[in-house]
Design goal:
The protein is an alpha/beta fold. The chain is 29% helix and 25% strand. Bound molecules: zinc ion (2 copies).
Length: 345
């Protein structure tokens, strides 16, 4: 079968690789139809994080179940499914408390299960991991495009909003205009926030933020951004969604948070080798909550809203490529030509 393989910085190729097979009675084999390139894929793509060479890549699979092991109960061959970026068992202590990303039986995509940017993938712990799309939507392309972000960025934006304690009628600030930040805006609106200030650096992305429900957009940087947000919010917001993970965005999040407020952070930390300056949190009793998003925990409620037409993150996909051209997808995201790239397999 064909699959994307990481060959080193800025070198992702589609190659012939062995097909994955069922290995355990709790596995399912998925024929991937849709997947995506992620902002987090850019860390290894740019050589900023270590990754084995060669290794299969991709962690946002959607497709059709091709075969299941004897103990799989929740899906059958032919079912349309999607899977979060982490594999989880569904029954351990942490899965049961909604922290699927800490599953003691968990795993990531890639390696011997095959990456999600490939024609097939083996899903361990199929009952805990896979999210089944109702049959009546199973072949509705528009719905599938809207559901695909539930594998990662939509669930992650939602986790930022939940961690920040966003609630009906509240004011919040979303730091970051990447796919996660944009989904954070959608999530905040969905939770009923009345005022949503989106902070980013790209005009086109901030325009999309406004379409997604941001009431104000701020494109200034550094101190000027802090000043502008504090002006708009009369001294900061009680709820801040940090959707970047950089030292500068964490600092910005703390500074635009109102004393006693909460920063929900979901950006993969990077460039924080000098440590996080806790004084900006300490001085104003700002709470820091969040971490890697357990998107499996949110899949059903978010899917329900997508299916009833009240939530649509599909516009984060500003470019579509087929699997053979996945390298073009990486390039477009690396050069910020695309917000997020959908890969048709
Ligand atoms: Zn991702
Ligand atoms: Zn588990």
């Amino acid at each position: 079968m064909r699959a994307a393989v990481y060959r080193g910085p800025r070198d992702v190729r589609v190659e012939d690789v062995p097909e994955p097979e069922l290995e355990s009675s709790t596995d399912a084999l998925i024929r991937v139809t849709h997947t995506a390139v992620c902002g987090s894929d850019l860390w290894f793509y740019r050589g900023d994080s270590d990754r084995d060479v060669p290794s299969k890549v991709g962690h946002e699979p959607m497709g059709i179940v091709e075969a299941v092991g004897d103990d799989v109960r929740s899906v059958d061959p032919g079912d349309r499914v999607l899977a979060p970026f982490k594999i989880s068992c569904g029954y351990c202590e942490f899965c049961r408390k909604g922290l699927h990303t800490s599953c003691v039986n968990g795993d990531g995509w890639g390696g011997d299960n095959g990456g999600a940017q490939g024609e097939k993938v083996r899903c361990p712990h199929a009952d805990g991991t896979l999210v089944r799309v109702p049959d009546r939507y199973a072949d509705d392309e528009d719905v599938l495009r809207s559901l695909l972000p539930l594998t990662d960025v939509m669930g992650t934006g939602h986790h930022a909003a939940v961690s920040a304690g966003v609630d009906a009628g509240e004011t919040c600030v979303v730091v970051g205009d990447g796919a996660v930040g944009l989904c954070g805006v959608l999530a905040a609106r969905r939770l009923g926030a009345e005022r949503i200030v989106a902070v980013g650096h790209h005009e086109d992305r901030l325009e999309l933020a406004a379409e997604f429900g941001a009431t104000d957009v701020v494109s200034e940087r550094g101190d000027e951004a802090v000043e502008r947000v504090c002006e708009l919010t009369h001294g900061g917001a009680n709820h801040v969604l940090e959707c970047v993970g950089a030292a500068s965005s964490m600092a910005l999040a703390a500074e635009v948070c109102r004393p006693g407020g909460t920063v929900g952070y979901v950006g993969v930390p990077h460039g924080l080798d000098g440590g996080l300056d806790l004084f900006s949190f300490f001085g104003d009793n700002v709470t820091l909550r969040g971490g890697v998003a357990p998107v499996r925990a949110y899949a059903e409620e978010l899917m329900a809203d997508v299916l009833q037409g009240t939530l649509d993150p599909a516009p984060v996909f500003t470019k579509t490529v087929d699997l053979e051209n996945v390298a073009e997808g990486y390039r477009a995201m690396d050069e910020r030509e695309a917000i997020k790239v959908l890969v048709e397999v």
